[in-house]
Amino acid sequence: MSEVAAAAHGDEYSCARAWTALTAAHARITGQLSTALGRACGLSITEFEILLRLSQAPPAGIRVGGLNSAVRLTQPALSRAVARLARRGYLTRADTADDRRGVLITITRAGQDALRCAVPVHAQTIRESLLDPLMPDEQDLLARALARVAESRPNDQATRQPRTRGTAARPG
């Protein structure tokens, strides 16, 4: 195998190792978080995410579609989750004045109470499962790296400079 082929194979292996580590960590942490939120507050992770976003929304509420970027579900699955929360009294749904098909959702006092229960459970579970195993500098690196990945767009790949192993890209 040539040096170029060996390097390419090594890059592919590094990608696979990174992906495997990410998916394994995600599966473990979401499993722990799901159990903790369910036991303590009766919420799923998706329901927690919806209530969290609604708690930060303007008083008039937001459209269901406005949750799509934060809660990665299909539109029908998101609508079902919103309907479940509405049945439990955690949010209200109202038609929009400008679009008869649109629905505005707002968090209720009961939803705020559920969120007040869930936020410390979420924080403790994330701290114990994700952050405590890391050194403080690793925590900061992880947060910065994941933020960069979350904020990147597919086209960003074409403009990025290639990196050699062990070097970090610097914002330029």
Q: Supply the number of helical segments.
A: 6
Under CATH at level 1, the class of the domain at 33-150 stands as Mainly Alpha
What's the end-to-end separation, in Å? 36 Å
Q: Report the oligomer.
A: single chain
Q: What is the C-alpha radius of gyration, as a whole number of Å?
A: 20 Å
Structural class: mainly alpha
Task: Provide the residue-averaged pLDDT.
Answer: 85
CATH fold description of the domain at 33-150:
Arc Repressor Mutant, subunit A
The largest pleated sheet is described as: 3 strands, antiparallel
| Percent in strands | 5-15%
Low-confidence stretches: 165-172
CATH architecture of the domain at 33-150: Orthogonal Bundle
- Give me the count of strands: 3
- Spatial shape: globular
Physical arrangement of strands within the biggest beta sheet: 1-3-2
CATH superfamily of the domain at 33-150: Winged helix-like DNA-binding domain superfamily/Winged helix DNA-binding domain
Order of helices and strands: HHEHEEHHH
Helix content: 55-70%
Structural account:
With 172 residues, the chain is mainly α. It has a domain at 33-150: Orthogonal Bundle (Arc Repressor Mutant, subunit A). Helix content is 62%, strand content 7%. The chain has 6 helices and 3 strands. Strands 1-3-2 form a 3-stranded antiparallel β-sheet. Strand 2 (91-95) and strand 3 (103-107) form a beta hairpin. Helix 1 crosses helix 4 (109-131) and helix 2 crosses helix 4 (109-131).
Question: How do the helices and strands line up, and which of them pair or pack?
Answer:
Layout: H1 3-41, H2 45-55, E1 62-63, H3 75-87, E2 91-95, E3 103-107, H4 109-131, H5 136-151, H6 156-159
Antiparallel strand pairs: 1-3, 2-3
